[in-house]
Amino acid sequence: MAVNVVQAALSSRRFNRWLLALGSLVLVAGIIAVVVTFTNNSKTENSAPTGPPIKAAPPAQPNLKMPAQAWNVASQFMFTALPRKHLATAYRLADASMLGGMSLSQWKTGSIQAPYFPTAKIVRYNWKNTNYRHPREIAQNVILIPGKSSGTFRPMPSLVILKKIGGQWKVDYFGPVNGPPVPTPK
Questions:
Q1: What is each CA distance from 184 to 146, 155, 167, in whole angstroms?
Q2: Does residue 185 have a pLDDT over 60?
Q3: What band does 16 get if pLDDT is binned at 50, 70 and 90?
């Protein structure tokens, strides 16, 4: 019975006239909308922006000069603690924050805060101007390059922070960071 009602409504002259009138109205409204859109000369974008002009980005900050004594401590730490060689030497180069309360015998087990890495070369870099220098503290970004025989290791961007304690530079922090993309050596 429902099929007959729909079929009767679709074949009704009165329904078809209303459907034709509704379709004509929709068509006329669409034509008017298109004509108004194309003839409207006002610009929707702000062609004269307000506010101060945008300044060019400042040039990248160069690497800061690091005292030779501080760099010697940092590089010696990265060549001893990370590949787990001469851990007693690395222990003397670290401050209390890096040691984390470990004794020398605990440190010598190799289970230390610094990640294992077979360091063969160290490259200093200044990514996003994150290096800083203070008379008693220095932060330096480095890229550690593994040795050729290291296999699966890729270069590792890292941050090393040194503090001057009693006239001696000590490694306060060392850890990998999300730095610039580093290509895999061939």
A1: 10, 7, 39
A2: no
A3: confident
Residue 138 CA to residue 70 CA, distance in Å, equals 8
Parse the chain into domains and list their residue ranges: 2-33, 68-176
- Domain 68-176 is in which class? alpha beta
Hey, which residues does 58 pair with through a beta bridge? none
Between CA 63 and CA 85 the distance in angstroms is: 29
CB atoms within 10 A of CB 80: 20
Pairing, β 137-146 against β 168-176: unpaired
Whole-number Cα distances in Å, 178 to 39, 141, 155: 53, 11, 12
Q: How many C-beta atoms lie closer than 10 Å to residue 177's C-beta? A: 13
